[in-house]
Amino acid sequence: MYANLSLLALFVFVYSAIAGGVERTPVTGPMVFTAFGLALGPVGLGWLNLDIDREGLRTLAELTLALVLFTDAANANLSVLGKSWHIPERLLSLGLPLTILLGFALGVLLFPDLGLFEVAILATMLAPTDAALGKAVVTNASVPADVREGLNVESGLNDGICVPILLALLALATGVEEYRLGFSLGYFAEAIGIGVAVGVGATLAATWLLRLCTRQGWIAETWRQLPVVALALSCFALAQLLGGSGFIAAFSGGLLFGALAQQEKHRFLLPAEGSGDTLALVTWVLFGAGLVGQTLGYFNWSVLLYAVLSLTLIRMLPVYLSLWGLPLQPRTKLFIGWFGPRGLASIVFGIMVFSADLPGGGTLTGTLVCTILLSILLHGLSANPLVKALTRASRPS
């Protein structure tokens, strides 16, 4: 345990010291974290042996995603979003279902040994985008504001929408009672409705209390880093407990907190963003050290081809079609389509599917891990060059 702790703590220290320099290069944090876990884990040197089961990794990924969703939503520019709401609305109402359908169609062709429900599960696992991996784009002021806010809202809501769809497919594929809750449209609406209600209700109460305590001077500086972290995790956990979508709750709570706490929010959000980055670091190290090594044996040409298609055609064509008719240039639509990275949400879904013990579970998890690895690499390396290209193309001549 102490050997693992010393390696991980030393890595956190070194990376936190050089993070600003790394951010000015094409290399991203998740690339470094995953590579560290892979290099020092059982597949590599064998120095890092983190004894964490799949449920532990799933919990860590869920909490990390909830915190990232909350802080990203709180930083959203609501005035811009109010004018450009049609972009995320199209991406979620048209682009997301089209992505799942196209992923299913190509999966049937590439994986003839999988059952139809298993292929549909694969398409659903890889449909949601990752707010954390997309941070390099959605926080870059060079990207047009409507594009940034559109991608931010899409990544904040699509994972919560996909949860009941995935549960429904698992119910059909396994017949296990645990997953049958997801088998109705009523549950789908209930999951989203409870998520929004919990996020709004908890944030309203918490914001009122924070304002009261701030006016009274009761919040000590040493405790200022905790309220937003606790609120984000409370929204997530309470929604999950009540049968709703914790991810929807975290994102809707973050949006409301950003709107209500305009003056105080940055003082509270900055420490919470640091906590989210730390949790993400640990999650990606565990992903590289554990999950990648367990699935390498399932990598083959069909898996690699589907992973490439998932990041390109399966994502980009539905996005382009869903944005048809909006006053966006073709290059902007392609930019939005390309920046749909896969990460924490897909890890959570993958562990759910792996635990379901499906006949093709190994192929499904291997394809998911391969897609995430490619996304970490390709989206990370392409973020800054493509942002610069889009910026140059958008300037008036």
TrEMBL record:
Transmembrane segments annotated in the record for this chain: 29-50, 91-111, 188-210, 230-257, 278-297, 303-323, 335-354, 366-387
InterPro entries: Cation/H_exchanger_TM
Pfam family, one: Na_H_Exchanger
Membrane topology type: Multi-pass membrane protein
GO molecular function: antiporter activity
Keywords from the UniProt entry: Antiport, Ion transport, Membrane, Transmembrane, Transmembrane helix, Transport
GO cellular component terms, A-Z: plasma membrane
Domain Cation/H+ exchanger transmembrane as annotated: residue spans: 18-388
Gene Ontology terms describing biological process: proton transmembrane transport
Location in or out of the cell: Cell membrane
Protein name stated in the entry: NhaP-type Na+(K+)/H+ antiporter
Species the sequence originates in: Thiorhodovibrio frisius
Source taxonomy: Bacteria, Pseudomonadati, Pseudomonadota, Gammaproteobacteria, Chromatiales
